[in-house]
Amino acid sequence: MISKLPELMKSHQGLDQKTLAAKTGLSPTTVGKLYRGHFDRIDNHTVTTLCRFFGLRSISDLIEIEWEDSDVQGMGA
User: Fold this and answer.
1) Nearest Cα to 31, choosing from 75, 74, 23, 69?
2) How far is residue 40's CA from residue 25's CA, in Å, rounded to a whole number?
3) From the candidate CATH numbers 2.40.10, 2.60.120, 3.40.50, 1.10.260, the one assigned to the domain spanning 2-59
4) Three-state secondary-structure class, residue 42
5) What separation in angstroms does the CA of 37 have from each of 13, 41, 68, 76?
6) Are 8 and 62 in contact (CB under 8 A)?
7) 5 in Cβ contact with 50 (< 8 Å)
8) What is the pLDDT of residue 37?
9) What does pTM read for this prediction?
10) pLDDT per 10-residue tile (average), the chain, 77 residues
């Protein structure tokens, strides 16, 4: 999974991680992990909070799935 958080933050006048955490109520650790793409899962509260903050309509505007060839085998692709 690829986080689009860095791009979203840049498009909001260079918003930094600490400010985003303060404005959303998310922990700085959560914001930092998402920013760096160091996460295995993301909870509903985090997704809805960030989507609401950035005015996103879809989770795909926040997180992208990048499949590898071995991931799509047997998926009918």
Assistant:
1) 23
2) 21
3) 1.10.260
4) coil
5) 21, 10, 17, 28
6) yes
7) yes
8) 92
9) 0.82
10) 94 93 97 93 94 95 84 61
